[in-house]
Amino acid sequence: MVVGRGSFCFPGYKTCERLHKFAAKQNLTDAGVDNIGSGWYGPTAIIRECARQASNLMVTLSKEEFSKKEKERSYYLQGIKGWPRWHYGVLSMYAGQLAINNCSGPGGFDKRADLLDFPSSSTEHPSKHPHLHTWQDHHLFSKADFAAGKYDKMNLSSIDPLHSARDYALWAAMVGNGKVGPRPLLHPPGSSALQPSRHPNMFGTLLDDLAAFFKGSPKL
Known about the structure:
Elements: E1 2-5, H1 15-25, E2 36-41, H2 44-65, H3 73-78, H4 91-103, E3 110-111, E4 118-119, E5 132-133, H5 143-147, H6 165-176, H7 202-213
Parallel strand pairs: 1-3, 4-5
Antiparallel strand pairs: 1-2
Helix pairs in contact: 2-4
């Protein structure tokens, strides 16, 4: 089982210390791995069980570890108060970390930031990073800027989604938004136009790359 990288425990704050104490109070197995991401990949039965535990832990955390004030929308969302110390807005991340540390079984898990939750602002080749995560910033590709329509009039003729994770994220979002066609028919420097027949579905290729990492693992 492989998980990605999260970002909610920071030096000088006691967020994860509090999570470890909560784990002990709930008699959970604690492998001591912090900042676990929202991306999980592994055998279906284990993933389902971890998700079930995370859902239940969200309820328990909400009831026992957050005050009424901390759960008010005006406090945790609009004002973003509590962050990055103890923040209701990332309740699912807290629960996910607790669940993964507890439920992964004898085989344990690997935290691989290069495979899951890799930054969508990177210019590295997308085939090396099967799962991208758009962080809370304004670096291209930014989900906040995308939602605000800042890419709607962008000239996409110069992007290279077949070789840049950042450009792939932008291209995929624009396809989903109906701004461009389903395949990247672009002209990278020094090459002729990329034809769909020469380049199979990029998303499928990335999933194949991730699956190859688990060669020999139980079939999902």
